[in-house]
Specification:
By secondary structure, the chain is α/β, with parallel strands linked by helices. It is 28% helix and 26% strand. It contains 13 helices and 25 strands. It has an 8-stranded mixed β-sheet with strand order 5-4-3-1-2-6-7-17, sandwiched between helices. It is globular. The mean pLDDT is 93.
Length: 457
């Protein structure tokens, strides 16, 4: 196995695709982790070779020096003044290698590559995918839903080490001969706007947090400055108001969908020309969806159930985690951990993570519904809702709220606002104003960290 710890640039696809061609298993990892995280991953995957971007060399070296890892070669992408032991520059490594006359003999169903989950619920898990899964996600979603073509220019804010980004910026454009914009730096609003104007992408892939930040930016470009025909959103559900505002601003629909590391990309999605903001749409053709009660029976329309998905891109297993593998991958079906409601038209609406659902006064409350309502307020940029145990030992809803720059609002104003928009019993009993919410690198809110913070205070 070869660990890929790289920023998005042209060396990344060379490393990943080259490993697949050679019959080696690439393990793509998050570039925003700590040395202790990389220690865990290296112990877990036991990679012999590491390919790393030069700016990430210090944190990697710190991780390796603190333990006895059996790493034979470190390949450094970029200019490095002082290479550590066992290290060689990327270009020199390629120049001194003998090209293979043909690809290694591999089977579509054998392990092809690993991705590590983003850790929205704790320790990352090594998710093992087959070679064929790259084909299936490109075929079913890239071509089938987004209708990508050779004339498109794709630009993904989600990085290549994520399942979402791997499709957006590599397998999807590669499958149709489209062009791609790779950006090594963080996808801040200003960095994204620069690429929109300079490179004129036609399809943009982002996450709700990013869309909210861009729409709130004073530097937001005009419709005439960009060439967007379509935008995609995943990572967490897209609030309806953000989707509508983006479309009003740029004339491009935001196609909101849900995917996962386990399924490699999106399997439930709105469709171009048939977008219903505030919902996650319908199953992507090629996938089947079931909503199940706690006893395993299927729910009726209008009832909350846990989402199970069946499709050709499911991962093979979690590495070194048999118990979690068996609970998640159940025969043909993959347990998502997400709660959904399906209406009579077959459209699905998100209700929260299974472990995030709150039972308040004996009634289930969806944190996402409360969060989506709070962000409708003109002063609110972001919100996250958890269950807070009060002095009587009862669970009440608590909201952590990030206000827009220069905006003002107090807790009574926001509580009254929620009461006016949804069933009054769902309003947050407690509101705490914060500067930022804890998130994974994909923008998923880490509610477990908010729960830990709440318990500690």
């Amino acid at each position: 196995r070869v660990l890929i710890l790289m920023h998005d640039n042209s060396d990344w696809p060379v490393a990943f695709l080259g490993a697949l061609y050679a019959g080696v298993v690439p393990v793509a990892v998050n570039t925003l982790l700590t040395a202790s995280d990389y220690q865990f991953i290296l112990k877990d995957c036991r990679a012999k070779v590491i390919i790393v971007s030069e700016p990430l060399l210090p944190v990697l070296t710190s991780a390796i020096d603190s333990d006895n890892f059996d790493v034979t070669t470190i390949v450094v992408s970029g200019d490095a003044d002082n290479l550590p032991d066992k290290a060689v520059e990327f270009d020199a490594f390629l120049a001194n290698s003998d090209p293979m006359e043909s690809a290694a003999e591999t089977h579509p169903d054998e392990p092809g590559f690993w991705l590590y989950s983003s850790g929205s619920t704790g320790q990352p898990k090594g998710t093992v995918h087959s070679h064929a899964n790259l084909f299936w996600t490109a075929e079913l979603y890239g071509k089938g839903v987004l209708k990508l073509s050779e004339s498109d220019i794709c630009f993904s804010a989600a990085k290549l080490f994520f399942a979402y980004g791997l499709g957006n910026a590599l397998s999807f454009p590669l499958s149709v001969g489209a062009s791609v914009v790779l950006m090594p730096e963080r996808p801040t609003p200003s960095a994204v706007f620069t690429r929109w104007i300079k490179d004129q992408p036609t399809v943009f892939f982002g996450a709700p947090t990013g869309y909210a930040g861009m729409l709130a930016s004073p530097d937001l470009p005009s419709k005439n400055d960009v060439s967007l025909r379509l935008a995609s959103s995943a990572g967490e559900p897209l609030p309806a108001e953000i989707g509508r505002k983006f479309t009003e601003t740029f004339g491009a629909e935001v196609i909101d969908g849900i995917g996962s590391t386990e399924m490699l990309h999106i399997y439930l999605s709105n469709q171009p020309g048939n977008v219903h903001y505030g919902t996650t749409g319908v199953p992507v053709p090629g996938y089947e969806i079931e909503l199940r009660n706690e006893d395993g029976s299927q729910t009726e329309d209008g009832e909350i159930g846990e989402l199970y998905v069946k499709g050709p891109s499911a991962a093979l297993m979690y590495w070194n985690n048999r118990e979690k593998t068996r609970s998640t991958f159940q025969g043909d079906w993959t347990k998502s951990g997400d709660k959904y409601i399906r209406d009579c038209n077959g459209t699905y609406t998100y209700s929260g993570r299974t472990d995030d659902m709150l039972k308040v006064s004996g009634v289930y409350v969806s944190p996402f519904e409360v969060e989506s309502t709070l962000v409708l307020h003109s002063a609110v940029l972001e919100a996250a809702v958890i269950g807070h145990v009060d002095a009587d030992g009862l669970t009440k809803t608590k909201a952590f709220v990030v206000l827009k720059e220069g905006a003002n609002a107090d807790d009574k104003e926001l509580k009254d606002f929620v009461k006016d928009k949804i069933a009054p019993y769902k309003y947050p009993r407690y509101i705490e104003f914060v500067d930022a919410l804890p998130k994974t690198a994909t923008g998923k809110i880490q509610r477990f960290r908010l729960r830990e913070q709440d318990r500690s205070t």
